[in-house]
Specification:
Response regulator, alpha/beta, Bact_response_regulator, 51% helix, Sig_transdc_resp-reg_receiver, phosphoprotein, CheY-like_superfamily, 5 strands, Rossmann fold, 5-stranded parallel sheet
Length: 156
Amino acid sequence: MQLTTPQAANILIVDDNLNNLKVLVGILSDSPYKIRRAVTGDIALQCITAAPPDLIMLDIILPDFSGYEICAKLKQDPETASIPIIFMSALSSNADKVKAFTVGGADYITKPFESTEVKARIRNQLQLRAAQAQVKLLTAELEKMRTVQISQSGNN
């Protein structure tokens, strides 16, 4: 997991509807985020493999794979498992939302988009990711210090 500040985050938006992509890019146009786009699941997976994003905004209904399938696949791979995924869909039933969380989604936004909600949910997930990366880094440092202490006490 790379340690990226939430302000410099790389976000991948996956939606086959070009109008939705345009709306989301417009909502985020005043943000410092680097925005990438994909219109199919296959393109999204290629983008993620080439350069894993800090956050993925993923439509559920895509022409080749469902967002659920993509999310499940990413969560099974240790290289991509920690990337937060915000599902976005016009599907608003509780069953759809529960399925999104069951396959590993971090959040769920219903369409049509409300800009302040989108920004708040993205900011929240990026802050959580940065905090998790910091905890992981500090844990590794503590473990290293513990190992040094044990080896030094064994030499005395």
